[in-house]
Design a protein that fits this description.
The complex is a heterodimer.
Chain A: E1 10-14, H1 17-25, E2 34-40, E3 43-50, E4 54-61, E5 67-70, E6 77-81, H2 82-91, E7 101-105, E8 112-119, E9 122-128, E10 150-155, H3 156-165, E11 172-178, E12 183-189, E13 193-199, E14 207-211, E15 216-221, H4 222-227, H5 234-238, E16 242-247, E17 253-260, E18 282-289
Antiparallel strand pairs in A: 1-5, 1-7, 2-3, 2-6, 3-4, 4-18, 7-8, 8-9, 10-14, 10-16, 11-12, 11-15, 12-13, 16-17, 17-18
Helix pairs in contact in A: 1-2
Chain B: E1 2-7, H1 9-26, E2 29-34, E3 38-43, E4 52-58, H2 59-62, E5 63-69, E6 76-81, H3 82-95, E7 103-110, E8 119-127, E9 132-138, H4 145-157, E10 164-167, H5 171-181, E11 187-193, E12 198-203, E13 207-213, E14 218-220, H6 234-244, E15 247-253, H7 254-261, E16 270-275, E17 281-287, E18 300-307
Antiparallel strand pairs in B: 1-5, 1-7, 2-3, 2-6, 3-4, 4-18, 7-8, 8-9, 10-14, 10-16, 11-12, 11-15, 12-13, 16-17, 17-18
The chains are: A mainly beta, B alpha+beta.
Chain lengths: 302, 314
């Protein structure tokens, strides 16, 4: 029913619900999280944050949708419970079957409307209540720390493993980048010490890229560092992807993952689909983690 | 009070591979009610909360040389732990030399070790040339005459058929769907219309999530769908059908609904949903065909009754 006046801000269609579920799950680090969804002509951005510690963004570009009709002025935003959104999307994802899911915003009562028509005689629908969004803090603005970016790309699986291993030493993890010898060091101190080194020469298969022109080191709270990898979808590990970590001005850590949003490969019966190769479709995930305030060496990188 | 029979090969595989795994999901403990003609597994019939499930078999579908006698019109009922029953059956199958010997099942009273009180058991016995395997499954004391009467009465009441039954969509995908739906809320509204619509909906203050299945096969009272409703949303269409008196809606626990779907482990050929008179409960009837045919196998019947939640309580 289109009882709301005028055309909706957005009507879009998805053919890979599971990919979107994966992408959104990767920023779901605790049970109850509020997300802000921002719509634009370029796609959809889902933003989640933990007050002044960590912020995550999922970019679903319009190329990921089979249809994307954007009719709004400006950039409409609404708040939604992330958990509910993911659980709800998950109901639309059937293993081994591809369903087209239509997402529409707003509904008559500002809801987010979802609908999948499986066959002419079966229909699954959902209406999720949205909220007026909380303001997103803008202090996650990421700025490069200098003229040369301080960045490295590491296999997502190795990154996750390293961060998982750092659980026992304690609550604070130091990340150190040094040009000579080119390496990344994760160090946890607490109940005991644990240091994990990624050496650019020795671990070329793990540390895929590395740029750093001066030593830098910052500490991050373990629990927020962990949030960046705790729910990495299995498809990322399976696809053997890399995650990019960059340290910006003030020690702000940016972690980027790529999540595949490919349509599930179902054997087609259509002749015309034979030979059609689906272009790789990726959702971008970004985490911004603020460093712990350090007394002695805050001026390390300025 | 005596009960003795041999399990047929068909009966063994039916119980071991299909019925017991399904019933085990309904609850660990159930009543086994044996009469001259039937063996019935009953869940939650004497306490009204929880999903009631009734699996009835003609004695010929499970047994040979079936002998039963009791002072209570040859009826015996007791409660039994399905996990133990299943385990006993499985373990005896692994050691039994099938080609030669049959599996006997009987009711016995034995003196368990370190006890002076004889206790009742359901005993499985397989005798081979060189060995014999005996498995004793502990059971409750047989139900008293009064309790058995009550059980019989509940069983009769549970046979009431809804006026309209609609054929459920494919069970595995329905189960898959409800399994995911469980995360969103706890109460599910189930609507069944005479047009052949089944509408499932979870609705909370934050979300409404539903599925509508249309043009399902209808048994019993039916009506033609109203043409003007065709282009309405699923929810509105359903509301209108309820107002017109062509559909009924009840609220049940999502957990119960999911549980009843686990009966698909018994590999029924199809299932039907219906709402009892006055919306007393939601009924799901599983249908089994005679192998290789499309004819209902009348020797097996399995159905569940889901308690309806009081709309005030949620």
């Amino acid at each position: 029913m289109n009882s709301s006046a005028g055309a909706p801000d957005l009507i879009c269609e998805l053919d890979s619900v599971q990919g979107i579920v994966d992408a959104l799950t990767s920023v779901r680090w605790k049970r109850h999280q509020d997300a802000v969804v921002e719509l634009s002509e370029h796609g959809m951005v889902i933003i989640v944050e933990e007050t002044s510690c960590v912020q995550a963004k999922v970019y679903l570009q319009r190329e990921l949708f089979v249809k994307y009709d954007y009719g709004a002025q400006g950039r409409p935003r609404f708040g939604v419970s992330l958990g509910l959104f993911v659980d709800c999307l998950n109901t639309f994802s059937f293993p081994g079957r591809s369903t087209i899911l239509e997402i529409r915003y707003p509904g008559p009562d500002m809801q987010l409307m979802l609908r999948a028509v499986d066959s002419p005689d079966a229909c699954i629908y959902a209406e999720i209540r949205t909220r007026i969004p909380e303001t997103i803090s803008w202090d996650y603005n990421f700025e490069p720390a200098g003229s040369t970016p301080l960045t490295f790309t590491v296999k997502s699986a190795a990154l996750k493993e390293a961060i998982d291993d750092l659980e026992w030493p304690g609550s604070s993890i130091q990340i150190k980048l040094q040009p000579v010898p080119p390496s990344v060091i994760f160090r946890g101190e607490g109940h005991g010490d644990l240091q994990i080194d990624f050496n650019s020469y020795a671990n070329t298969d793990l540390l895929i890229a590395f740029t750093c022109d001066r030593p830098i080191s910052h500490r991050y709270k373990y629990k927020f560092l962990r949030a960046t990898t705790s729910n990495i979808p299995s498809s990322v590990i399976k696809d053997n992807r890399g995650s990019k970590l960059t340290i910006g001005r003030g020690g702000m850590l940016k972690v980027q993952h790529l999540v595949s949003v490919a349509k599930p490969t179902v054997p087609h019966t259509h002749v015309d689909s034979a030979g059609y190769q689906q272009p790789s479709r990726i959702a971008y995930i970004e985490f911004f983690v603020k460093p712990e305030v350090e007394e002695e060496d805050t001026a390390d990188d300025s | 009070m005596k009960f003795k029979a041999f399990l047929t090969d068909n009966g063994i595989s039916l119980l071991e591979k299909r019925i017991l795994p399904a019933l085990d999901k309904m609850g660990k403990i159930c009543h086994l009610y044996l009469t001259r003609d039937h063996a019935v597994f009953l869940h939650n019939l004497l306490n009204s909360d929880g999903v009631q499930s009734i699996a009835q078999f003609s004695q010929q579908s499970l047994f040979q040389d079936y002998r039963i006698s009791s002072q209570n019109d040859d009826r015996i009922a007791f409660s039994i732990d399905l996990t133990l029953l299943h385990r006993a059956l499985r373990s005896i199958l692994t050691v039994q030399d099938f080609n030669h010997h049959r599996l006997q099942i009987k009711l016995v009273k034995k003196l368990p070790p370190h006890s002076t009180q004889p206790t009742p058991f359901l005993t499985f016995e397989a005798k081979g040339y060189k060995s014999a395997v005996v498995h004793d499954v502990p059971i409750s004391k047989p139900l008293s005459r009064a309790d058995l009467q009550e059980l019989q009465l509940s069983l009769q009441n549970a046979q009431e058929m809804p006026a309209t039954l609609v054929k459920a969509p494919e069970l595995t995908s329905l189960q898959n769907f409800v399994d995911r739906m469980k995360h969103v809320g706890e109460v599910m509204g189930v609507s069944i219309s005479k047009y052949g619509d089944l509408h499932l909906k979870i609705s909370t203050s934050l979300i409404a999530l539903g599925a509508e299945f249309r043009k399902l096969m209808v048994l019993g009272e039916r009506a033609d769908p109203v043409a003007e409703d065709r282009d309405l949303s699923a929810q509105t269409r359903n509301e209108r059908a309820v107002q017109r008196g062509d559909a009924m809606t009840v609220d049940v626990s999502v957990k119960h609904f999911f549980k009843s779907l686990q009966c698909s482990l018994a590999k029924p050929d199809c299932a039907f949903y219906g709402i009892a008179q006055h919306g007393a409960c939601l009924i799901v009837i599983f249908q089994f065909f005679i192998p290789g045919t499309r004819q209902t196998d009348k020797s097996i019947s399995l159905h569940c009754r889901l308690p309806v939640l009081d709309p005030g309580s949620n």
